[in-house]
Design brief:
46% of the residues lie in helices and 14% in strands. It has 390 residues and is α+β, with helices and mostly antiparallel strands. A hairpin with a 4-residue loop joins strand 3 and strand 4. The protein binds zinc ion (ZN).
């Protein structure tokens, strides 16, 4: 079940650099620099574009492959400007570099928009890559038709798939800490990668005697974990697309209700097909049922005003369900205003912080009413969706 790993890891980073957040301002145009860092044991050098510079000397740096690094002022030994353009890695160079960071046994599968790193079978990686490519195209078509300017991600999107859950958890603990065993896949805003594992376990399992192995797609989609697998992959890949096509800006204060609302809008699997996912706009039945069973007055206003409910130990799934319901309702009834609201969010600089009042007034400006006023209509619309034949 997709939880909030990327935000958890970012929250950790941001807490550690409170001064950077408080003083962040955006330079007019990113400047490429070489920065020498002092480390605990070894010094290291990084090159990239300075996205944000704090008055205390802290820096948010974008590396050539679009990873972000938050550099604390104390870690920076020296800085010098570079006048060359950022080097562009070929998918092969990118693959080699990522493979060097992963445990032994990984391989890569390169498609038009993705670099998939896997230690599952190649068939499993190919099935997943086809799903990502379909999502990539459907996502672009949907938002372009809705009137939002979408750009193709400038570099391949990286997805890492582990065959084995334990190896995944050991790797993911770097990003997620103790939550790694509860989070089955995540998109990390700093590394810009999706990491997950073979949820179906279909790949490495010995076959029961007498049962022939079917095609990989059939094996995957007949697994009891198929629905969870497809929604996890599509959910995290939707976040990755949204943060790489100009819809959201990484580390900007994008409200969680909107980023999670969009990911849950897209995540609905198609269990009738061995391809697992077909397109957009299907009713997300688990989220709809959850919303109708748990919503309380004031829920919509509370997720618009703050991200706290998504991060709470208790009931974050209620917040996800409310985010899906609100997003579904706005896309159904106020698509143009919703797109305008996305544009407003995309214009905010990284590492900013919006107050509750600011978030509420942004919403009211875009939609012409308060979230509290819209709540009754959301509940009514969701009840109507639930009464549709399945
Ligand atoms: Zn999510």
């Amino acid at each position: 079940m997709p939880l909030l790993p990327r935000f958890r890891s970012i929250a950790v980073a941001l807490t550690a650099s409170a001064a950077l957040v408080a003083a962040a301002g955006e330079p007019a145009r990113p400047i490429r620099e070489r920065i020498e860092l002092r480390g605990d044991s070894v010094a290291r050098r990084v090159e990239g574009s300075v996205l944000v510079e704090a008055v205390d000397g802290g820096v948010l740096l974008e590396l050539a492959d679009e990873r972000y690094e938050l550099l604390q002022p104390g870690a920076i030994a020296s800085r010098s400007p570079l006048d060359d353009a950022a080097p562009i890695e070929t998918p092969q160079e990118l693959s080699r570099r990522i493979l060097a960071e992963l445990p032994a046994g990984f391989d890569v599968h390169v498609t038009r928009h993705y670099v998939i790193c896997f230690d599952t079978s190649r068939d499993y990686a190919k099935w997943s890559a086809a799903l990502f490519e379909r999502l990539h195209d459907a996502f672009g078509n949907f938002w372009t038709k809705a009137g939002l300017e979408i750009s193709d991600p400038p570099r391949p999107l990286v997805v890492v798939i582990f065959a084995d859950r334990r190896a995944y958890e050991a790797h993911a603990a770097r990003d997620l800490g103790g939550a790694a065993d509860r989070v089955v896949g995540y998109y990390n805003l700093l590394s810009n990668r999706v990491t997950t594992f073979d949820l179906t376990g279909t790949d490495g399992l010995p076959r029961p005697v007498g049962r022939p192995r079917g095609s990989p797609a059939v094996e995957i989609m007949t697994s009891p974990a198929a629905a969870g697998l497809v929604s996890t992959l599509v959910h995290e890949a939707t976040h990755q697309m949204a943060f790489n096509c100009g819809m959201h800006r990484r580390l900007a204060p994008v409200p969680l209700w909107v980023s999670e609302g969009i990911a849950t809008y897209f995540e609905t699997p198609d269990l009738e097909s061995i391809r697992g996912w077909r397109g957009i706009g299907a009713v997300n039945r688990p989220r709809l049922d959850h919303f109708l069973a748990t919503h309380r007055p004031g829920d919509i206003a509370s997720i618009v005003a703050s991200d706290d409910r998504f991060r709470a130990a208790e009931g974050p799934l209620d917040a996800y369900a409310a985010a899906w319901a609100l997003t579904r309702h706005l896309i159904d009834t106020r698509r143009r205003e919703f797109v305008e609201y996305l544009r407003l969010q995309a214009a905010k600089p990284p590492l900013g912080d919006d107050s509750r009042d600011r978030r509420l007034s942004d919403f009211e400006t875009a939609f012409g009413e308060t979230p509290a006023a819209i709540e009754a209509a959301v509940i009514k619309a969701m009840a109507r969706l639930a009464s549709r034949p399945r």
